[in-house]
Amino acid sequence: MKKINNYIITAFLLCTTFLFAQQTPAPKQTKAICIMGATAHIGNGEVIENSIIIFNNGKIETVADARLVKIDISNMDLIKAEGKHVYPGFIVPNSTLGLGEIDAVRATIDSDELGSLNPHIRSLIAYNTESKVIETMRPNGVLLAQITPQGGRISGTSSIVHLDAWNWEDAAVKVDDGIHINWPRPYTRGRWWRGEPSHLKPNKEYGKQVEELANFFKQSKVYQQSTKEVKNLPFEALAKVTNGSAKLFIHVDDAKGITDATEFAKANDIANMVIVGGYEAYKVTDLLKQNNIPIILNRVHSRPNSDDEDYDLPFKMAKKLVDSGIVVALQANGDMERMNSRNLPFYAGTCVAYGLDKEEALKLITSNTAKILGIDDTFGTLESGKDATLFISEGDALDIRTNKLIKAFVQGRNLSLESHQTQLSKRYSEKYQE
Fold this sequence. Notes:
The chain is an alpha/beta fold. It has two domains: 108 residues, Urease, subunit C, domain 1 (Roll), CATH 2.30.40; 290 residues, TIM Barrel (Alpha-Beta Barrel), CATH 3.20.20.140. The radius of gyration is 23 Å and the shape is globular. About 3% of the residues have low confidence. Keywords: Hydrolase, Signal. It comes from Oceanihabitans sediminis. This is Amidohydrolase.
């Protein structure tokens, strides 16, 4: 009887999820569009106060000061945007968007797999473009995401998608961009539920866990040099990071782990490495600079890990790293990560409140992220030749009070900014206005 009830509850939750249909993906751009008069935040630190932006066939053709150029716009769709702001689409890395829907219903979660060493697991083919959560990203300007598997020691392979598509094939921007490793923890805390002290202590299994990873990489190299008579999918996938065609994303927070992970990458001749998390990265900035290692920083809106740390350390962490010359991007990891991804611009806004220049903070969710993910030739800034993935906001997009989108485009396609949340808001606003 309990099993039957569980099936009924699951069916009810799934049905109620689809009461509001996902917005139909926008059609392909058919006519040139000109945005006139807005303040253009290029994404590389530059700002054009009175701009003209023209894009056609999904590509940006012109970004200039409207006072300095003369262009015939008579055959274009004109958007008058005086007093408004234009930004490149925000990019959220290390995300499970489209890989899960209702946390309480296991059947809707597809973010991890059984086993520990899964470099061959590809998140892209599990990406669900019909997710209700995805459409709630766009009204805040989050238009691109790195879809990343979770769990295990080697979680699998991520891909980058834009957040308006019919299916995962249409959504794909960069396929299999990197493999993700959850680095072992050098230190652990006592299990309070067993009465153990909660202070940090050495992880007795740390050396063994690192050695297991090293052996797996050694075996992969041996396989690559073999005749490959028997195909090994994990080793085939791992070859992408050893030959440099994909990046290695190592998820690690503590200074010792970051140091050991860096040495591990060097020992395995891995040129393209990224630290994900990096809570104590500010303690080893010289090492990171010497090895040209960027950071996808932990969620800004979080608490310090230790009682003796500054209460605002997570808020000012980005500035510490940027001032040290590290390339930094922001993510929305942690509890409720998928839902919190829509708050990405406000994490950047908090960095501004704690000392970082506003245009530098914008880079944390645009050009820096694009550079780290290897898509900066197409996304991340408002420049001629790049994809027209951008949006218009009534005010400062990093400020929760003024981030109010009026238009958004992905590859020149005019997106709907409606979602089940905006529909419900209008529905009940009308009720209580009466």
